[in-house]
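I am still getting used to backbone structure tokens and would like to learn alongside you. Label the sequence line and the structure token line clearly, so we can match residues to local backbone shapes. Would you write everything just below, so we can both look at the same thing?
***
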Amino acid sequence: MTVRDYCSQFALNLEPSWHPLLDDCPDYHRIHDNYAKAHVRSVQHGYYFHTWNQTFWNFFAIEPIREVFLLKAKLSGLDSESFLLNTALEGPVARLVVHQYPRGGGGQEEHVDPISNFARIQTIIQASSPGTDYQVGGLYYRDSDGNKINIDEATSMGDLIIMSPGVRHGVSRIDPEDGVNWQSTSGRWIVLPIILHSDHFADSVERPSRVN
């Protein structure tokens, strides 16, 4: 079963919810529909999996996902895999995030990601086939002259996209002429292996910020 298939089934069996990243935070999924108080507004279905729950380890066994986590750990100066066993209270934790941007207008406003010791690079695993799963929209960034450069059209399912977190980027609306159907599995899917401090460390938690 693919990550995408698992998430689709996960959503069928569990109501959407939100939980702060504290000890024993459950795995959950959440629908983001331009929430007004969000740091960066988006239209997407997000899934969140943690090392203290079994699903994370099922995904971690997929070699490309494991390799990305270990690459980010090495760049962060973590010389072992011990961070994978940390509780939310103990220090940096690994979290696997999956986003589905549905056809009919899924997307994310332009923003920059936080740059921290655990986020020296942004890593995005393409889990869809542009041109097949969706026709219009997708990831873009702004170059130094402010030009919008589309990325998805140059990628295929399974590709790893590496970006500087400080680069302005966003997700153009996915097939905006279609109606959004939150029960549909169509659209743009990505997998995000992330290392971060939990909400126990409120002073050190950095957030993405929109670009006006």
Remarks:
- Residues 63-75 form the longest helix (13 residues).
- The radius of gyration is 16 Å.
- The first strand starts at residue 28 and ends at 33.
